[in-house]
Amino acid sequence: MKCLSSQRGSAFLLVLLFSSLFLVMFGATLSFILVQHKAVEQEVARSQALHIAEAGVNYYRWHLTHSPGDFASDTGVQQYPDPLGGIFGEFDLSVASPSVGSTTAVITASAHQQEHQRTESRVRVRYGQPSLAHFAFLTNSNVWFGDGESISGQLHSNGGVRMDGTGDSLLTSAQETYICGAEHGCSNEVKDGVWGSGVDPVFWEFPADTVDFNSLLLDLDQLQADANTPDGLYLPDSGSHGYYIVFNADGTLTVNTVKSVYGPVNGYNGETWTYESNDKKTWTPLSGYVNIPLPTNGLIFVEDDVWVGGTLNGRVTVTAARLPDGSFERADIYIQDDIVYTAHDGSSALGLIAQQDILSTLRSDNTQRIDAAMMAINGHIFRYYYPELSTQPYATYAVRDSIETYGTVISNTIWTWSWVSGAGGPVTSGYETTTTTYDPDLTYSPPPSFPTEDEYAFISWEELTLNEL
């Protein structure tokens, strides 16, 4: 006969055992759910903090658009409101202003959501103002690249483009159609904004946005003031033909006064015939300016015509202008000799800014190299047409072999290095082959005070961990 109390005791033990197992499993499940909930909550908070940090960066980009050059205001901790007027979170902004020779600002934002202040996200974003040197070629006029001419980098014209040469990047015109005249081998014919026998027409775009050259005009008075300080180099009227600045590979320069030029010759400047000389003949070093260091702020301002040549080791901008602008004959820059960098790694950069023209002279090197970002504010970057006549004493200089530019060409009016006898004909004056190549290092690290575009452009984004700040 079985004992009833023994059976009840065994049942109780089983109930207790299963209840304990249930409680353990329930507790473990509940703990797992709570851990997962907390992890999800933290991930949501981190994601929200990341969005708040990005909002802070975007806010500062807006700030720079409206207050270019102000990298101090509106930094620090700021609140991020929610749509109902409450506080959703906070971001803390710090901004590193561009270093010397750069246009790139580094914006770092740390942020958290209001209810999860211990969960932070941090981002670092680089924005920069692209310099106009990101163009290999920019002009306010019609332009013709012949079959002996090539360009590497972006080309834009506010006029029409006849492209019979080669290119490897965007080639844009602000015109849908234009009237092609005799200067481009046409008889006042209507042509597409970009046309010709050149290769890679897949890169041709027209019409494109117009580049407003009026907005590119530099403040020459400010450039003069910045150069006329202990950190810059200011050269007044020479009292002679102008100056000859020679850059030396050791990072120095020598300023010479040009004492005489070769006799004047007939030349066509694209609009009219002239009788002048742009070639230096004799020069003497200017006392106190022999093998001197490059100016600390990289600015040289010359209130006269200036010849430039040599090997540059450093970053500098040469501006030639007579002020007040328009009160005197505007100043030109002449390139008779090669201008080259010691290295093409961004450590050297030359800006040449002429109030009027930048001219490759009659007696320029037979194979000429120009490493520079060039800008002719009111005139053009050009080589005159010199008729090749046996009776002329300069006939041997009329046709040159090749010219190569590394940097950018910004010409307000018509540009050319060479002249041909009819469409597809031989070169009768100037350089038989021309090569234009942009310098990628100048886009966000242009020569000192070289003009930039107004808008800041995105360069890079990265999320930081705690030990990366």
- Judged by helices, strands and strand pairing, the structural class is alpha/beta
How many helices? The count is 3
Total beta-strand segments: 35
**Average of per-residue pLDDT values:** 89
Strand content: 35-45%
How would a crystallographer describe the biggest sheet?
A: 14 strands, mixed
Number of domains: 2
- Low-confidence parts, pLDDT < 50 over ≥5 residues? none
Distance between the termini: 82 Å
> Over the alpha carbons, how many angstroms does the gyration radius reach?
33 Å
Helix content: 10-25%
User: How would you describe the shape?
Assistant: elongated
Give a description of the structure.
With 469 residues, this protein is an alpha/beta fold. The chain has two domains: 4-129 and 456-468, no CATH class; 132-442, no CATH class. 16% of the residues lie in helices and 40% in strands. It has helices at 4-66, 220-227, 395-398; strands at 76-81, 87-96, 104-113, 116-128, 135-139, 143-145, 149-152, 154-157, 161-163, 166-167, 171-173, 177-180, 189-192, 194-195, 204-205, 233-235, 243-247, 252-261, 265-268, 273-276, 280-285, 292-293, 299-302, 306-312, 315-320, 333-335, 339-341, 349-354, 358-360, 367-376, 381-382, 399-411, 418-420, 427-438, 457-464. The strands form six sheets. Strands 5, 7, 8, 10, 11, 15, 16, 23, 25, 28, 30, 32, 33 and 34 form a 14-stranded mixed beta sheet that branches. Strands 17, 18, 21, 22, 24, 26, 27, 29 and 31 form a nine-stranded mixed beta sheet that branches. The radius of gyration is 33 Å and the shape is elongated.
